Amino acid sequence: MRQSKQFFVKVSMALLLITVFFLFPSVAPAAITVYPTDVIANASRTNFMGFEGMAGLNGLPSTWEEDGIRVEQINGYINNIWSTYNWGQEGSRSWYPSGGDSGYTKISLVSGGEFSNLGLLVGTGWSGTFYVQYALLSDGSTVAQGEIYFPSYPQHLGFAGGGFDTVLLSASQSSGNTVIDGHPNALAIDSIELAESINQPPGTPVLIAPENDATVSGNSVIFSWERATDPEGTDVTYLLQIAENADFTANLSQYAVDENGILIAGLIFPFFALMGWGTMNRRKLTLLIMAALLTSVMIAGCGSDGWGPTIDTDTDTTSVSYNVTGLNSASTYYWRVIAVDEDGTRSIPGETRTFTTN
Ligand SMILES: [Ca+2]
Ligand SMILES: [Ca+2]
Fold first, then answer.
1. Is residue 33 part of a domain?
2. pLDDT tens digits for 167-209?
3. Which domain holds residue 207?
4. Predicted pLDDT at 45
5. DSSP per residue over 295-328, as a string?
6. Smallest-distance ligand from the CA of 201
7. N or C: which end of the chain has fewer CB within 10 A?
């Protein structure tokens, strides 16, 4: 008992040290990161362009300025921005080159300065999947460029890390394009947000099992993946998604589990459940958990032998496993895992794997 108590006190001290460390995280050197997720919390916005003030329906100018941000359509149809095309935008108006064009959209600051972090909503005039091409420039030189696939719209897109003063964007139906190559473009954008700092999402979970294209017997599968870390050091939970199509829209089942593979709905003591897990602020919940930890430290410190959690020193601390039951037989499923930080910011989804039950 004495040994386990000492061990528990050591673990408690380590937890406190880790907590102190997370209060003062180290700052990584800047680099541009592209996120197909909402990385700018609304509360962190320093500038916002929602296009809601654009008057009229069609025939708008090809430049719009709002809250220090400037948007221009380059090589597009002049004076032909359709602001009321409905694609799931923020509010009722957005920026959409009417009928598409062969140009691209340029975003810059009216001041001519550099962006720190920029996020926006993207969509297209096409139905279904689409690709967004981007190029980030600094003083006219390209500092980052690429192409991102989106399965549907609206979607979030974010550029973080600074070091760019211009964002060029276009959309296409098939892959293999660059922003400025003159391909048919039907990019719609809205809700441009700027922030000095962002809450970065956790790393992308790396899948372990089952292997891709596995055949499993029975209607129960143990899924496992490597733990992800959050750049800000907050606790990471995981969203295991299982569906019958690769876009995760057909019969989607989702399981939110913690780093120990415990279903979050069943994670906490009953009184937490009574307080409403679904609506509880994660920070508040963390405070409650820390209060419970501190209480256990105090109990251990008071020499109350025989109380405290059982610590299994054989526990694998680098991966997470979760057992899903009730799968249909002779069915093909797709699965992936998304890491979620304490602020609810989601990682880029991990690899999509498939398996078949027999
Ligand atoms: Ca809008
Ligand atoms: Ca984070």
1. no
2. 999 999 999 999 999 999 999 999 999 999 888 889 999 999 9
3. 2-24+201-357
4. 94
5. HHHHHHHTT-TT-SPPP-TT--SSEEEEEE--PP
6. 2
7. N
